[in-house]
Specification:
Strand content: 15-25%
CATH superfamily of the largest domain: 2-enoyl-CoA Hydratase, Chain A, domain 1
Low-confidence stretches: none
Number of helices: 3
Helix content: 40-55%
Mean pLDDT: 75
Structural class: alpha/beta
Distance between the termini: 107 Å
Shape: rod-shaped
CATH class of the largest domain: Alpha Beta
Number of strands: 3
Radius of gyration: 32 Å
Strand order of the largest sheet: 1-2-3
Number of domains: 2
């Protein structure tokens, strides 16, 4: 009879080890659910503005959109640049003046908008294959 008790001890030891493992893993998962949610990784956005063609002073009327998309307006562009300056998710701004037609006054307003962005400690990058002075 002694031999049967010796064989049951390793089985109960394995059983208790399995139960202990399950209890510890359950306690760990309960501890994780009681803690506040980990802070989500903050989004980093790079705003890209492509400037093509003529930049009008005021927004164009959409009633003649069948003849092509209306040109961008300086007012809308400056508003979007200002919004990017104040948005904490935006980390940098890229300007791509692809064959843009800008007057000297428009260039000054864009310069002021870029200065606003830089005053909010954000990087501003401009790339153009070629630029011409007015």
């Amino acid at each position: 009879m002694m031999n049967t008790n010796n064989h049951s001890f390793p089985k109960t030891g394995v059983l208790w080890s399995a139960v202990l493992t399950l209890v510890l893993s359950a306690m760990t998962s309960l501890a994780d659910t009681n803690q506040p949610a980990a802070k989500e990784k903050e989004r980093s956005i790079v705003a890209v503005f492509r400037l093509e063609g003529e930049l009008t002073e005021v927004p164009a009327d959409d009633s003649f959109a069948m003849f092509g998309s209306p040109a961008d307006s300086l007012k809308d562009l400056v508003a979007r640049l200002t919004q990017a300056a104040h948005d904490s998710a935006v980390k940098a701004v890229v300007l791509l003046p692809d064959a843009a037609t800008l007057g000297l006054g428009q260039v000054e307003e864009l310069r002021a908008a870029v200065s606003l962005i830089r005053s909010h400690n954000k990087e501003v990058y401009v790339h153009a294959d070629s630029l011409m002075t007015g």
